[in-house]
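Researcher: Here's the sequence for the chain we discussed earlier.
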Amino acid sequence: MFFAPGTPRLAVLDSTGAKVKTLVLPMPNEGEPKVRFLEEQDETKLYNRARRTRIFGYIPEVTLTWSAYDDRTGEGVTIGTADGNRPSAADLLVLLSSGPGLLKFSPGPSAGGFVVQTVEVGESGVTSQGYAKDLKVTLRGGDLLTTRALGSW
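Model: Thanks. This is the structure I predict for it:
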């Protein structure tokens, strides 16, 4: 299955690539996470002016947006950075600051995942209740996939 709706997960890896812990993120806005695959290709113009395209593979990219990132305690989930917890917005931003290859992302429970190489965090604000408002995160892999399907989790 390519993608199954559910809670996105973020695994923290050690320097050898072994999984240390898995964190469960809150559900993003409706219609997300958005998954797309960037094509890595080479296009050559031949002597007869024809074009030859060679596709090397696909790099996964996922965008998550939260209108209000829910990190309230006492709502049925444990807030923290231990295995199985939901990170607070501040903890999430610290985790996303780790170097390339130290996080693995999965957009759903049976969707597979990919090792994150680059992270882009958009501007966000704070609501009057203390939520992170309009938090947007884009996670991009670095390893080329042969098909437009996420690898195993």
